[in-house]
Amino acid sequence: MKNEDEPKDKRLKPGDAQKLTMAEVAKYVGVSAMTVSRAFRQDASVSEETRKRIMEAVDALGYVLDLSAGSLSSRRSGFIAALVPSINNSNFSDTARGITDALENTGLQLLLGYTDYAAEKEEELIEAMLRRRPEGIILTGGSHTARARRMLAKAGIPVVETWELPEDPINHVVGFSNSEAMALLVRALAGQGYRKFGYIGGTTARDTRGSQRRSGFQKAVEELGLGPGRMISFGVPPITMEQGGQAIVSLLERWPDTEVVLCVSDLSAFGAIMECKRRGMKVPGDIAIAGFGDYEISSICHPSITTINVDCYGIGRQAAARLLDALQGSGEATGDDITLTGYRVVLRESTDRSA
Amino acid sequence: MKNEDEPKDKRLKPGDAQKLTMAEVAKYVGVSAMTVSRAFRQDASVSEETRKRIMEAVDALGYVLDLSAGSLSSRRSGFIAALVPSINNSNFSDTARGITDALENTGLQLLLGYTDYAAEKEEELIEAMLRRRPEGIILTGGSHTARARRMLAKAGIPVVETWELPEDPINHVVGFSNSEAMALLVRALAGQGYRKFGYIGGTTARDTRGSQRRSGFQKAVEELGLGPGRMISFGVPPITMEQGGQAIVSLLERWPDTEVVLCVSDLSAFGAIMECKRRGMKVPGDIAIAGFGDYEISSICHPSITTINVDCYGIGRQAAARLLDALQGSGEATGDDITLTGYRVVLRESTDRSA
DNA sequence: CGACATTATGATATCGATAACACTCGAAGC
DNA sequence: GCTTCGAGTGTTATCGATATCATAATGTCG
Fold this sequence. Notes:
The structure is a homodimer. By secondary structure, chain A is α/β, with parallel strands linked by helices. The first copy, chain A, folds into three domains: 22-65, lambda repressor-like DNA-binding domains (434 Repressor (Amino-terminal Domain)), CATH 1.10.260.40; 76-177 and 313-341, Rossmann fold (3-Layer(aba) Sandwich), CATH 3.40.50; 178-310 and 345-351, Rossmann fold. The first copy, chain A, has helices at residues 22-29, 33-40, 48-61, 67-74, 90-103, 119-130, 146-155, 178-191, 208-223, 241-254, 266-278, 296-300, 312-328, and strands at residues 79-84, 109-114, 136-140, 159-162, 172-175, 197-201, 230-233, 260-263, 288-290, 307-310, 337-340, 343-346. In chain A, helix 5 (90-103) packs parallel to helix 13 and helix 8 runs parallel beside helix 9. The longest helix of chain A has 17 residues, at 312-328.
């Protein structure tokens, strides 16, 4: 009777809901809170009639389930965490979309984070995510700090690494060999008669997929006996369209007789092509240019861009699927589990030999 | 003694952490759990020495704070929810990035959802988000279902609507008038001497920003006495690059003498330009084309694309900033609060009159 | 018709942290 | 020397749902 008449916390604004709880809904209907809780999950054995009355009450009162309370006692957070290098890159936003779609109707929600291609940022984010006790986690790539690996091991949840084939996988992998894919593109273009190959990529090793593509290029060129490739590094990954344009200028200054240039991604390839056109060069004709990733832009632009198509969306879907399997499965922990995702060369106008 | 010797849940894999709690860390250090809790937040008055010992123990044991437990008792989830139409559109992913950046070091985490431009999906997502008890929510646009509005009102948390100026704002707004912005572009191009205006956009009213741009176009053309605009609708929003290409074909078939075409977004403008080039038309020269949104592609492509630059990233940052203000403020609930974000016409090659 | 399974529901303990308040102890003030 | 204060720490209740076990009502079968 002392502090009953005035609420402790005055933060509430007029019209605010006074934190409605399950118990109040229960009282309103004349059942126990437990029954209301059951009514919210289809599995429970609540009579159709009771459930209906409860749901009407929920509607009338405007009650919204509180999962944070529920997850504490059920020990299931309902979260899946995913870390991507950047959401402002359509390849990764496609993957994020794939994850989201695969999670639909599973009752799991996606917690997304951006690492900005930095392992330290990834470490921070992993910790932040684990504090929410996700039931599984999806990472991009296979390079993680030692502490990150330790935390993941301790967490005891399934981990999926994507977009690469890590040398030392943590748990599940859904990806492909970036170096093999780039090598395949080199061979396809060599098959068309190109001989003098150039390459454009970022400067540092931050972007492990970028480095792998570069080494795949290098290896393939040498294996074909086409001498060392002409490599230009420009800008900190991820390199932009604009940097692609600047890079091709450097490359052509240094090696004017280059026949075909492969770029670490379609974005830089696009920038390179546009810069060439702006300078009056013909693409193809004077120079052929190819990218990697098959972004939407590449099929549309003129000339359309030869590239490697990667199933970005599928990587997301499958990564989520592997996670769901692991969560459902009895936890047999069958060691490493690797899902290879496809890629293919898409030959388009930008490397058309007949031009 | 029946199921004591074998654990119920075999889900745990070898090497798993046996759910370490704060109490165990506390026991290890020889303090109370409360002190450990305090050590995790800088505000608390824990002696430097104790804090150090606690953090060493945390490190040694590999303890990770459990926020879900904490948020239940502190009644602060540490979440901000944000809904965008699509993450696969760089305008919105830029906004998401802005929100993320603004939230850095605030201890708040972003819960992101995609509505796919559908109000019903938005309603579902709002409910899903509210179940996590976010401390604030950021929405795109001002069209919401009645139930969504009711839930938001009941939730009693600050709401920010973005990217538009809703007629009936819920709470805070961070945006601009899409129709005014498009009208400005029309006037700028009319000022360059263009007279016969065409417009390309999506078919339905799902995308409210698209509709507003369309009506801004229409109004401006009429006000300038340039007759009704030539409007082509193509595809369900958001319309793709490819659809932009198809749309311009229809438009030019129907009105071959069109001088300039405005598109609902840069993506469709890009598709339209590329299609024209593919058909041997000169852009500009034979036809001028402009977009909306100033995507990265528009400054790079050849010809570069005239457009409206929108501060996508800033919208995100400011939306988050308004939310933080509201959370800090004593909850005076000072009615509506509208933050206008800038936009500007960017004239580029694609509408160059001298070409 | 009695033993037993099945269905629908309730009571109570609990998840793991934090709020709120209590307490100890040494320093400061008069 | 006694009161007052604040820094540092502990104790207990609690957040709001769910796991678990108990119980009442109903149905089944030989």
